[in-house]
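Severity: low
Component: inverse-folding endpoint
Summary: output formatting inconsistent between runs
Steps to reproduce: submit the following structure tokens with default settings.
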């Protein structure tokens, strides 16, 4: 009977506790399986700053080389730097990171050549099956000629590529505080920002996978507190917060207030549309603000609404030829970046927009932030389906209400909307609500929560 890897092979990646749930021996099998499934004769691998990352990455490389693939190791990197390498070198890639998870976790994000995603339906299930089989029967037969393992530094090339997509040379000088959370932003930011008219105030740039200062998860407001205080204390123009593998970026205005990722999506969308002659498709998931499709249409673009999750966004980007996509979770996707997500490129757009005019960031983003949102509110429930049915019954017969089930249940009225989605991994329902004013949002939010938590 083969080992069961279902607890660590998720919908889009591998993730689990090291060494309890997986180790270097298993990493080598994943490397071999990755080569077998992709059919690659060459791959690129990189890793974050977690203590277990170098060992796991080396084992994966050896497993891949044993099956005949030449492996290029790019060493310490952010996830979007790995995507850059996969795109620029046109090679399948593997990034060793557990993103914002605690230190004892690690994982693998895999992609095909050109940073095309690998998920359950695009190779990950087969990779899991082979790794399970080989964990029981022993490693696969090695290739007659093993592949080579070599090193290559891509940081300077990655930084130059991003700077080539956004012109920052003529912006006014800006003071920017960056909280890297002891994650990979501390590695990439100094090189990407080098030579730009920026007064950089670094916070927690020391690479430390034990995360001694706070979790590297800016989606949790508690992890923004230090950055908000420092922006105010420094009198900075803005603050940027990166997650552990630095593929997501959150923005803080000059007052220390968070800028909604929906507002960032709308701002970047307007810039990408302008760059594209005022036309193009923009992807947004169904819990971004009403502001996003409004701004897209106002700037000549076509908004396309999708389910939540990067696999759906990337698939829709490829299908529609979209030029940009954004999510409420601060993932930002660019056609110019192989449809992959890069928080760093979104940050450069924000810096360019702010530095290209004289007003403060709060004033700049106000036109992109038109409504009041609840943020995501999680509730533990005994029966997800039962509660969703109850919500549908409560709202389905009201006049002027529309319901759709693209992802969970979305209920829309003239002045408000809300979405309730079940978690795939926990007994939770996730509520997001938005309205034209705060009082209406609060009333809607509380009504729905009363049903969810009944």
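Observed output (run 2 of 3):
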């Amino acid at each position: 009977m083969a080992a069961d890897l279902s607890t660590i092979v998720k919908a889009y990646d591998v993730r689990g506790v090291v060494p309890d749930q997986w180790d270097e021996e298993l990493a080598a099998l994943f490397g071999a399986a990755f080569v077998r499934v992709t059919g690659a004769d060459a791959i690129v691998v990189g890793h974050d700053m977690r203590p277990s990352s170098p060992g796991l990455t080396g084992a994966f490389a050896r497993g891949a080389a044993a099956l005949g693939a030449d492996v290029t190791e790019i060493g310490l990197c952010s996830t979007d730097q790995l995507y850059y390498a996969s795109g620029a070198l046109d090679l399948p890639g593997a990034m060793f990171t557990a993103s914002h998870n605690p230190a004892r976790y690690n994982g693998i994000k895999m992609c095909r050549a050109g940073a095309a995603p690998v998920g359950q339906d695009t190779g990950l299930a087969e990779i899991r099956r082979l790794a399970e089989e080989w964990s029981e029967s022993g490693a696969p037969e090695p290739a007659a000629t093993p592949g080579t393992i070599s090193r290559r530094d891509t940081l300077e090339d990655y930084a130059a590529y991003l700077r080539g997509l956004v012109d920052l040379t003529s912006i006014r000088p800006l003071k920017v505080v960056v909280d890297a959370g002891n994650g990979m932003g501390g590695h990439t930011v100094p090189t990407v920002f080098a030579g730009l008219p920026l007064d950089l105030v670094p916070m927690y740039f020391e690479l430390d996978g034990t995360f001694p200062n706070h979790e590297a998860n800016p989606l949790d407001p508690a992890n923004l507190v230090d950055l908000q205080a420092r922006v105010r204390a420094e009198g900075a123009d803005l603050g940027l917060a990166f997650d552990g593998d630095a593929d997501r970026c959150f923005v803080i205005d000059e007052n220390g207030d968070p800028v909604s990722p929906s507002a960032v999506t709308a701002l970047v969308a307007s810039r990408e549309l302008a760059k594209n002659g005022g036309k193009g498709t923009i992807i947004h998931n169904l819990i971004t603000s009403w502001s996003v499709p409004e701004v897209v249409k106002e700037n000549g673009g076509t908004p396309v609404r999708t389910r939540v999750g990067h696999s759906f966004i990337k698939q829709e980007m490829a299908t529609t030829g979209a030029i940009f996509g954004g999510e409420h979770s601060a993932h930002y996707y660019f056609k110019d970046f192989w449809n992959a997500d890069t928080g760093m490129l979104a940050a450069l757009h924000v810096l360019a927009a702010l530095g290209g005019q004289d007003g403060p960031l709060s004033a700049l983003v106000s036109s992109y932030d038109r409504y009041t949102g609840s943020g995501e509110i999680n509730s533990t429930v005994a029966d997800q389906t039962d509660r969703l049915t109850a919500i549908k019954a409560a709202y389905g017969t009201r006049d002027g209400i529309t319901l759709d089930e693209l992802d969970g249940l979305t209920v829309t009225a003239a002045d408000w909307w809300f979405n309730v989605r079940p978690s795939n991994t926990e007994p939770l329902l996730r509520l997001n609500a938005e309205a034209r004013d705060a009082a209406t949002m609060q009333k809607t939010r509380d009504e729905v929560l009363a049903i969810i938590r009944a």
